[in-house]
């Protein structure tokens, strides 16, 4: 192992899971004596934490990698690492494509970075993509925010949506124990963090792989039980969770969210399509009627809850009429936010080899039409906040206007107001909303709430 201090840079693509993994890997590197370097060109260890969800995410990685691989010829002590979902998907073949790489490691190996690097420093080129049980890791992550934080609760995904690479690259479901999750949250509370987002690709599956069942045969550990169990962690003021799957979403969970004051009234429940035939061919396991019932139930318990989702347009064989059913769902539900994407065929997924692939023109036309409607509806949804006083947890300075700070409402709307970040970071501030946009708000501070820890 090198004894001289190295300088590292991490570039992260993809979802919150990857962001959480990057923070953990940064923690491991700092523990080993590496220091963060803001300019990748001055770093002697570069780690790309990659995403493979759509082809354009994957291609981005190759173009970045090409540049650094060239640099390695002039600077042989440069260590190049590809981690994350492209690493898992491509494995050995990444080395053939970019022979300058030192380490290719799948997401399940993130906690093992130290061991793997030791092998690299011993002179090996290493590929770590075998399926392993993810070990609890006690190294402190280097977190990007001082206020909000991610906590993994379940890794992997056992679903088989026909368009999706995630089960191939993230492996089978593996829940962390409630005790380990609570311990991490308690540590975050002690460090001054105010908000925790519990993470899982299909978070409603939490606990089904853990031993134990109640006398009614229900799993002993469900997401609902977990929320009750971690709710009183001192210092943590807000709890969020993502991503929810409509197939497993229960009324019991909705009740818990309504009952527990720290759980934010924000639900991220992807619907993917508003058409039953398409949903079936995606293997999603629910109908649009079931999806609507979930939203109705949420709104019955929490009329003001904010609802966000993901949707795909141009799935193989999707007709104009079927696409219009997606528009109809968006029109009728009124989402606060929807992340949209044109279908992208992915390696080793069933839908990628189906005959009825749609042209890029059709896909991008549908994407535009859907996004247009989503904007209109989100703007309509924002109207309800005008003139109201909302509680905003302050995160950062507004990078575009230094006189302002930026935070989020419980419903996850970005909110800006005039204030000094050094005084307000991590504070809950009551803000009167004066200006609304589709996805963000501006207001005036009314009162800084003294946070009373439980
Ligand atoms: N686990 C979550 C989503 C994970 S992936 C769920 O079940 O909803 C994040 C989003 O990427 C998905 O919700 C989907 O909208 C999109 N996505 C996944 N695979 C895709 C593909 N092949 N083409 C386009 N979008 C895709
Ligand atoms: Fe992919 Fe479906 Fe699993 Fe979500 S639930 S990660 S879309 S396979
Ligand atoms: Fe991408 Fe992997 Fe997340 S494919 S979306 S980084 S699970």
Automatic annotation (TrEMBL):
<dbReference type="InterPro" id="IPR013848">
    <property type="entry name" value="Methylthiotransferase_N"/>
</dbReference>
<feature type="domain" description="TRAM">
    <location>
        <begin position="383"/>
        <end position="447"/>
    </location>
</feature>
<dbReference type="InterPro" id="IPR005839">
    <property type="entry name" value="Methylthiotransferase"/>
</dbReference>
<dbReference type="InterPro" id="IPR020612">
    <property type="entry name" value="Methylthiotransferase_CS"/>
</dbReference>
<dbReference type="GO" id="GO:0051539">
    <property type="term" value="F:4 iron, 4 sulfur cluster binding"/>
</dbReference>
<protein>
    <recommendedName>
        <fullName>tRNA-2-methylthio-N(6)-dimethylallyladenosine synthase</fullName>
        <ecNumber>2.8.4.3</ecNumber>
    </recommendedName>
</protein>
<feature type="binding site">
    <location>
        <position position="51"/>
    </location>
    <ligand>
        <name>[4Fe-4S] cluster 1</name>
    </ligand>
</feature>
<feature type="binding site">
    <location>
        <position position="15"/>
    </location>
    <ligand>
        <name>[4Fe-4S] cluster 1</name>
    </ligand>
</feature>
<keyword id="KW-0808">Transferase</keyword>
<dbReference type="Pfam" id="PF00919">
    <property type="entry name" value="UPF0004"/>
</dbReference>
<comment type="similarity">
    <text>Belongs to the methylthiotransferase family. MiaB subfamily.</text>
</comment>
<comment type="function">
    <text>Catalyzes the methylthiolation of N6-(dimethylallyl)adenosine (i(6)A), leading to the formation of 2-methylthio-N6-(dimethylallyl)adenosine (ms(2)i(6)A) at position 37 in tRNAs that read codons beginning with uridine.</text>
</comment>
<keyword id="KW-0819">tRNA processing</keyword>
<feature type="binding site">
    <location>
        <position position="85"/>
    </location>
    <ligand>
        <name>[4Fe-4S] cluster 1</name>
    </ligand>
</feature>
<dbReference type="InterPro" id="IPR006638">
    <property type="entry name" value="Elp3/MiaA/NifB-like_rSAM"/>
</dbReference>
<feature type="binding site">
    <location>
        <position position="164"/>
    </location>
    <ligand>
        <name>[4Fe-4S] cluster 2</name>
    </ligand>
</feature>
<dbReference type="InterPro" id="IPR023404">
    <property type="entry name" value="rSAM_horseshoe"/>
</dbReference>
<keyword id="KW-0963">Cytoplasm</keyword>
<dbReference type="Pfam" id="PF01938">
    <property type="entry name" value="TRAM"/>
</dbReference>
<comment type="subunit">
    <text>Monomer.</text>
</comment>
<feature type="domain" description="MTTase N-terminal">
    <location>
        <begin position="6"/>
        <end position="122"/>
    </location>
</feature>
<dbReference type="GO" id="GO:0005737">
    <property type="term" value="C:cytoplasm"/>
</dbReference>
<dbReference type="InterPro" id="IPR006463">
    <property type="entry name" value="MiaB_methiolase"/>
</dbReference>
<keyword id="KW-0479">Metal-binding</keyword>
<dbReference type="InterPro" id="IPR038135">
    <property type="entry name" value="Methylthiotransferase_N_sf"/>
</dbReference>
<feature type="domain" description="Radical SAM core">
    <location>
        <begin position="143"/>
        <end position="380"/>
    </location>
</feature>
<feature type="binding site">
    <location>
        <position position="161"/>
    </location>
    <ligand>
        <name>[4Fe-4S] cluster 2</name>
    </ligand>
</feature>
<feature type="binding site">
    <location>
        <position position="157"/>
    </location>
    <ligand>
        <name>[4Fe-4S] cluster 2</name>
    </ligand>
</feature>
<dbReference type="Pfam" id="PF04055">
    <property type="entry name" value="Radical_SAM"/>
</dbReference>
<dbReference type="GO" id="GO:0046872">
    <property type="term" value="F:metal ion binding"/>
</dbReference>
<dbReference type="GO" id="GO:0035597">
    <property type="term" value="F:tRNA-2-methylthio-N(6)-dimethylallyladenosine(37) synthase activity"/>
</dbReference>
<dbReference type="InterPro" id="IPR007197">
    <property type="entry name" value="rSAM"/>
</dbReference>
<keyword id="KW-0949">S-adenosyl-L-methionine</keyword>
<dbReference type="InterPro" id="IPR058240">
    <property type="entry name" value="rSAM_sf"/>
</dbReference>
<keyword id="KW-0004">4Fe-4S</keyword>
<dbReference type="InterPro" id="IPR002792">
    <property type="entry name" value="TRAM_dom"/>
</dbReference>
<keyword id="KW-0408">Iron</keyword>
<keyword id="KW-0411">Iron-sulfur</keyword>
């Amino acid at each position: 192992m090198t004894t001289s201090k190295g300088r590292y840079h991490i570039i992260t693509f993809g979802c919150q899971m990857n962001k959480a993994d990057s923070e953990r890997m940064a923690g491991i590197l700092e523990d080993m004596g590496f220091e963060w370097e803001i300019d990748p060109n001055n770093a002697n260890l570069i780690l790309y934490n990659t995403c493979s969800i759509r082809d354009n995410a994957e291609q981005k990685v190759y173009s970045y990698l090409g540049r650094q691989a060239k640099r390695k010829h002039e600077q042989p002590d440069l260590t190049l690492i590809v981690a994350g979902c492209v690493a898992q998907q491509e494995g050995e073949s990444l080395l053939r494509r970019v022979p300058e790489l030192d380490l290719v490691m799948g997401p399940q190996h993130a906690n093992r970075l130290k061991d793997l690097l030791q092998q690299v420093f011993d002179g090996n080129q290493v590929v770590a993509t075998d399926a392993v049980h993810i070990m609890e890791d006690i190294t402190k992550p280097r977190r990007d925010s001082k206020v909000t934080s991610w906590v993994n609760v379940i890794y992997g995904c056992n679903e088989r949506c026909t368009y999706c690479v995630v089960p191939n690259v993230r492996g089978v479901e593996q829940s962390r124990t409630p005790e380990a999750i609570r311990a991490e949250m308690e540590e975050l509370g002690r460090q001054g963090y105010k908000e925790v987002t519990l993470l899982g690709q299909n978070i409603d599956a939490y606990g089904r792989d853990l031993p134990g069942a109640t006398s009614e045969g229900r799993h002993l550990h469900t997401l609902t039980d977990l929320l009750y169990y971690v709710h009183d962690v001192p210092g943590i003021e807000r709890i969020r969770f993502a991503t929810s799957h409509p197939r497993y979403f229960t009324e019991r969970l909705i009740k818990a969210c309504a009952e527990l004051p720290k759980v934010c009234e924000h639900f991220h429940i992807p619907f993917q399509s508003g058409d039953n035939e398409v949903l079936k061919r995606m293997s999603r396991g629910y109908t649009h009627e079931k999806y609507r019932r979930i939203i109705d139930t949420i709104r019955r318990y929490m009329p003001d809850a904010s609802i966000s989702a993901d949707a795909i347009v141009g799935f193989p064989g999707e007709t104009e009429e079927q696409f219009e059913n997606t528009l109809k769902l968006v029109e009728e539900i009124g989402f606060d936010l929807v992340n949209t994407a044109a279908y992208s065929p992915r390696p080793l997924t069933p839908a990628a080899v189906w005959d009825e692939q749609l042209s890029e023109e059709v896909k991008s036309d549908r994407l535009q039409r859907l996004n247009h409607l989503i904007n209109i509806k989100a703007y309509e949804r924002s109207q309800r906040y005008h003139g109201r006083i909302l509680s905003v947890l302050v995160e950062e300075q507004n990078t575009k206007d230094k006189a302002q700070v930026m935070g989020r409402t419980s419903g996850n709307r970005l909110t800006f107001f005039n204030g000094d970040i050094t005084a307000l970071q991590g504070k809950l501030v009551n803000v009167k909303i004066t200006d609304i946009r589709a996805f963000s708000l501006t207001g005036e501070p009314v009162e800084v709430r003294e946070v009373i820890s439980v």
